[in-house]
Amino acid sequence: MEIEWVRGDVLGHGSFASVNLAKPRKNSDDDDRFPSSMAVKSCDDCCSSTLKNEKEVLDQIGYCQQIVRCFGDSCSVEKGERLYNLFLEYASRGSLADQIKRNSLKESDVKRYTRSVLKGLLHIHAKGFVHCDIKLQNLLLFDDGDVKIADFGLAKKSGNDENQQKQSRFQCRGTPLYMSPESVNENEYESPGDIWALGCAIVEMVTGKPAWNHSQDSNLFALLIRIGVGDELPLIPEQLSQQGKDFLIKCFIKDPKRRWTAEMLLNHPFVVATTIDNQFDQDHEEEEEEEEEETKTITLKDSRSVSPRSPFSFPDWVSIQSSPSSAENSRFEFDDSFLSSRNSSSCLLDRIRNLAGDWRPEWSDKDCWVTVR
Q: What is the CATH number for 61?
């Protein structure tokens, strides 16, 4: 059934679409089917293959609590231009990239967010798909504290189907700073690549900086050489616990066949302890509240000074971030046919030079958007 809706304020601009707040029209039949607020991705209908791919993937993988929901799609004509619109779950607190710009994250939060992303990836991979663009900008934070995976525009089926085998073109997808060695070297985009990207996202959650020390003025070719060639790995943050460091080591195994899977990582102590830690924190907060109430009661009954009843009765102790440039975070997908021999080292260098070339797709915004009230 067609969604009757009105376009609200602009929420942002992605690589392939503009994102607005959307509200269903006041209609008793629609009130139970759609939330009061949604996010709508819109682009020119003739350039909507990425959004339509996202809709198709979300329909096929089905519901998962850790993945943003899709409420349908529609076409509209605004200012004489036909637009394709995709309606998605609205994350009022933005992305984790927005979050680390505002505040640094505690390790307990990093654990919780990581566990949520792993559950989402486990569902995606079990359904036979690869996300291909895991990064903080695509991990959305909701009012209840849940983190959900978003933006499936570059997602693909696992393995090489007949259509992919027939294609002789070279195709690159994802964000360079999050690309895995096999993606750079072999044009391979499978579930282990999502795990590598998750490791990069965790480093950025902890430090507020990209996993690779790559300045805005540095050559992208040099970065891709570091990722794809040699033994260098992303730097593991010193401030992370030993369990967290070991978790990242499992994500950053160069050989994708030996890299841990989402299912294996869900049993790693770094995230398994999350439930126990959360319960401990909750019990600890309840104990502190009880102590405060007891202290207040004693103070009211006796004006004389009262000795602290526990360490928690003392006054509370009051116990940086930079984000990668928009150019470095830009997601890209382009075609070429220069690969003739994947196994030769010179071919590998040619591939990386091509990835780091001066060519960039045109993603400028058009002036014909209209806000429908």
A: 3.30.200.20
